[in-house]
């Protein structure tokens, strides 16, 4: 019996990246390869505030999700857990925040 590796958001995207949106916010962008990938990433029953809150251990209420179908892009922003360059900041550029989102398995259709 062969186990199959689940498809992740990264498999459907050109790029998934994260960056600072000022010293107090993180922004992540999902640039999907095509409309089918975008449809999955933009599906509110799959990728929503609750999912992001669980992945990043942040409050659901502070999460903003922007779906841009004309570009096949989903943008997610939320307050940083600690401010940029503070004593407990372990990723000053927020360059690694995208990883949990990138490896998120997509639902089987």
Number of domains: 1
User: What fraction, in percent, of the residue positions are helical?
Assistant: 10-25%
Q: Please give the alpha-carbon distance between the first and last residues.
A: 22 Å
Q: List low-pLDDT spans.
A: none
Record field, number of beta strands: 4
Strand order of the largest sheet: 1-2-4-3
- Structural Rg: 14 Å
Question: What does this protein look like?
Answer:
This protein has three helices and four strands; from the N terminus they run E-E-H-H-E-E-H. The model has no long low-confidence stretch (mean pLDDT about 90). With about 110 residues, it is α+β, with helices and mostly antiparallel strands. The chain starts with 12 loop residues before the first strand and ends in a 7-residue tail after the last helix. A four-stranded antiparallel β-sheet has the order 1-2-4-3. Helices cover about 15% and strands about 25% of the residues. The chain has one domain (about 10-100).
Can I get a quick summary?
The protein has 109 residues and is an alpha+beta fold. It has helices at 35-41, 49-56, 99-102; strands at residues 13-20, 25-32, 64-68, 73-79.
